Automatic annotation (TrEMBL):
Keyword Membrane appears in the UniProt entry: no
The protein's name: Sulfurtransferase
A cellular component annotation (GO) from this entry: mitochondrion
Keyword Transferase found: yes
Superkingdom per UniProt: Eukaryota
PANTHER family the UniProt entry points to: SULFURTRANSFERASE (PTHR11364:SF27), THIOSULFATE SULFERTANSFERASE (PTHR11364)
PROSITE patterns per record: RHODANESE_1 (PS00380), RHODANESE_2 (PS00683), RHODANESE_3 (PS50206)
Keywords: Repeat, Transferase
Length: 384
């Protein structure tokens, strides 16, 4: 059985990344139940439109920044899948807005998301454990949980259907897209990704909290434990979040197999070109190299700008069209484990394609089967 999130915090072998705000050790446990706010002192000036002219200098302080929004609270955009850090700052204290830290990293990055959350997170943010809020009946990583399991975990976090959610991560725009997609799969459309994530939030001069309150950690641990109880058939509650599964947004291996012949959807793979071509080995053992026959490759970094924010619509459109993807036809996305495929779905959502399914098992599932067809750059050349 999986251990609780609290146990993972205390016993995790991964060290906090060297870019931590703290230099003493251990940086987390010494102030585990204390909450401190880091304030940012502006060294820049603003135009009348609130446009930032220069950079910002961080400083330690006990109070929040003195800068105030100069205009009233606005509703989240209904035609965009992302919100800006400025919008979130202006609306952060709205009662029905909940901020979710969905940071997750590849194993070889040696970064621990929950520990980094404790070092610095957006004030009031909840922590969503992608590996913990997942299907416990499969060996595939972080697959979608059942409706009952998702509802139990999200309820344990204190999220309700009335809430507007803003999801971010520690890389800029990476794993947050996965959680954005998960909520939409389970029928919650009032969800947005923070464009540029925590790096842009901090670069813009906004507060972060260091360490987490005991309540925040207990909620994250309770969410993981609720998942376990559901899969063990034990009662959980209370359930404050109602799910409504949207099958059009998630594909299975069987659907991908069928699509090879029927070609109802254009499949786009978010992995790197060397992995797609079968030139580079897969990072997980026992997984064949290559790609699903007929699929196209758009590595996810190519739809982000240098600050890890989503490209503007005109540039996104050009990028998909360059790879022969028609925006007039259905698209399904995939990647290695179903995380970065959601970044492609996010980009397509900006272009008006709001019903793009993600192949949840992605290449980890497809490449591990001995009977699934696999193409490589070599086989593609031979068939031309």
């Amino acid at each position: 059985m999986a251990s609780s999130l609290l146990t993972k915090i205390l016993l995790s072998p991964r060290a906090i990344h060297t870019s931590s705000l703290f230099t003493h050790h251990p940086p987390i446990l010494s102030s585990f139940f204390n909450k401190q706010v880091f304030s940012i002192r502006a060294v820049s000036t603003f135009t009348s439109q609130n446009t930032r002219l220069t950079g910002w200098a961080p400083c330690m302080a006990s109070s929040v920044v003195s800068r105030r929004a100069t205009y009233s609270t606005r509703s989240a955009p209904t035609n965009e899948p992302v919100v800006s850090v400025d919008w979130l700052y202006e609306n952060l204290k709205e009662p029905d807005i909940k901020v979710v830290d969905a940071s997750w990293y590849m194993p070889d990055e040696q970064r621990n998301p929950i520990q980094e959350y404790q070092v610095a997170h957006i004030p009031g943010a909840l922590f969503f454990d992608i590996d913990g809020i997942a299907d416990r009946t499969t060996n595939l990583p972080h697959m979608l949980p059942s409706e009952a399991a998702f509802a139990a975990a999200v309820s344990a976090l204190g999220i309700q259907n009335k809430d507007d959610l803003v999801v971010y991560d520690g890389k800029g725009l990476f794993s947050a897209a996965r959680v954005w997609w998960m909520f939409r799969v389970f029928g919650h459309d009032r969800v947005w990704v923070l464009d540029g994530g925590l790096p842009r939030w901090r670069a813009s001069g906004y507060d972060v909290e260091s360490s987490a309150s005991s309540d925040a950690i207990l909620k994250a641990s309770a969410a993981s434990e609720a998942i376990e109880k559901v899969y063990q058939g034990q009662p959980v509650g209370p359930i404050t979040f109602e799910t409504k599964f949207q099958p059009r947004l998630v594909w299975t291996l069987e659907q991908v197999t069928k699509n090879i012949e029927e070609k109802s959807h254009q499949q786009v793979d978010a992995r790197s070109k060397p992995r797609f071509d079968g030139i580079a080995a897969e990072p997980r053992k026992g997984i064949r190299s290559g790609h699903v026959p007929g699929s196209k490759c758009i590595p996810f970094p190519q739809i982000l700008d240098s600050s890890q924010a989503l490209l503007p619509a005109d540039e996104l459109k050009k990028r998909f069209e360059q790879e022969g993807i028609s925006l007039e036809k259905p698209v399904v996305t995939s990647c290695g484990t179903g995380v970065t495929a959601c970044i492609l779905a996010l980009g397509l959502h900006r272009l008006g394609k709001t019903d793009v399914p993600v192949y949840d098992g992605s290449w980890t599932e497809w490449g591990s089967h001995s009977d699934t067809p696999v193409d490589t750059a070599d086989t593609a050349t031979k068939t031309q």
